[in-house]
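Allow me, if you will, to draw on your knowledge of protein folds for a short while. I am sending you one protein, given as its amino acid sequence and as whole-number tokens for its backbone shapes. Kindly check, if you would, that the fold set down in the tokens agrees with what the sequence suggests. The record follows directly beneath this note:
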Amino acid sequence: MAVQKSRRSPSTRGMRRAHDKLGAKQLATDTTTGETHIRHHVTKDGFYRGRQVIQPKAAVDVDA
């Protein structure tokens, strides 16, 4: 069974965890639609770098 040699102080634990935080996502605005999206990702409308690269799915109308 593993037994620690000496107890780690809260300061040392905090210094180790200092690099574990999550960074903010980099957002960009599409030049054609003006939509905000994550950088290097396709927008919800299917645009990437000002060009439409995929066709978005058509909305389904339910007549119920």
